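Researcher: Please translate sequence to structure tokens.
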Amino acid sequence: MKELTLHELIIKNGRIVDGTGRDIFFTDIAVNNGRISHIGKSEIEAVLEIDAQGMVVAPGFIDIHSHGDVSAPYYRYMQSSLMQGVTTLVGGQCGYMPAPCDRYWTSQFIEMECLQKFADELGVIPELGLPESMAPLIKERFGVDFDWRDFAGYVRKLRVQGIGVNIMAFAGHGAIRSQVLDYDYKRPAIDTEISAMNEYLEEAMAAGACGMSVGFDYAPGMYADRHEILKLLATVKRYGGIFATHWRRTGERTANASRRSRIDGIVEALELAAEAEVQLQISHLMTGYEIYPSDNDVLSVCSADETLAMIDAYRKRGLTVYHDVIPNITGGILLAPDLGMPFLKQMLECGSRGAFAEKLHDVSYLEALKKNVTTGSIYDVNPLIDPEWDARCTILSCKFDDYYKRSLRDISAELDMDSVSGLLTLLREDPYTKVFRPMQGVTPSNIKRLISDTHATIGTDSFSIDLTTRFPFAEDMPLYYPNPNTYSGMFHYLLEYPEMRLESTIHKLTGLAASIMHLSDRGILACGNRADIVIFDPQKLELNESLTDPRRYPVGIEHVIVNGTAAVCFGEPMLTLSGKFIERC
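Model: Translation complete:
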């Protein structure tokens, strides 16, 4: 018998991958009032009908480690997430969060141009900005009123202006710590200061934060001691929240940085969570051990195995712990394709790239700069903490065509000089040279092993923006771009690191991620659940990626439904605002 109700949407003839991991089945899905109203063949009529013949119909992907919360006030349509099938992201990561900010605005990369305005006066880009100073700069740059000061106010901002995908968010320990310690943060906090931090944390948890994140490689969070973190985690536990950690891997990323034991950083996070008795999410996990040469696949996989075994030992002791992995060797947040980016400070002093290249003809200047590199004074080209820095640097564009896709180490050897001299020589000859530098210690083989663990999910570690964003410092200077994962991180997982079964691959992105975040009505295609749905043909997915300018969408996502509303139709973003801020469940 024909159903009389006119539904909002019906998806017909799809290959259903429901997010649970069970086998594919073929049927129709109807949507009404933002929820899945019917699964099964029927004669239901709907306002919008999508014929999914030959395509996969799956729950919308969940990006479990995102910085889309940071960009959402300024790029509310969030197309870069939607175009890779993401319908929900989990932000507030690495200790960063746009709130609280009643005393200080904490630098979060997306507003780099705004903070750059202070550089001429201060000599450096500040880590903290006064809200009253930042407000007009944000308005000028993004056309958005900076009118929130606490977590609840941030949530109101998103709900009033609208967002393209769903957002959950952790309270950011770094943002909280900044309000209490301001620039006096390079020390442990005393109990009265920890109590003040707890007041901010209480406000965030009461407003729906899903827990607290800490960035142990970033100021100010890296200076917090065990006592401070445990006191705050007691509040997280009381609310039933999660502890997410950017674990201590590199230490402070500044001149003269020292090498750290990565596995010690993972153990520190595990110990904190175990003592606090809270669920732990280890952010963007990589192996806990350095392997040289890093391209030895056998050793690389062994290091991943040992890392997972360490985590599993705590799991056997009763700790609930999961991890997420960036499915790409590019790292997260930003991409710096200019060979000269590590020398941005010197270029700014010279006034242009060309002037810097000319300055490199001065032998005394050249030798002084070479000494800075060899002694570890420039973090991004520090041979003391990264013995393979030159081998990992691959030329992508240069005035010398025969250098294309060759490493700086190889080119320097051909020139019969050390790699630091080769680097400065190449910058002198072509200061516009573009390169690719993968993450130190990250290889396709260890990524694959870490992802294959049954407790692993996927995070892009990137913003949620559009195709226009870049981060200039000044005219004729190296640029930062959004990381390629901003646009195609999920595609890297689907195409390069999938499970043996498509059903298991989709489960990691949907049902498993929803379970970790305690989302009871998302992540699985079931009657009554929120209608977050992605439709695609796995055979037609293409990365469409560039490592010199990543601002391009991947190809292959045909339709995306967010809370029952079509946000992508026939591969085109619809600029709808059907996302919701999801409070802790």
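Researcher: Any highlights?
Model: DSSP finds 20 helices and 24 strands in the chain.
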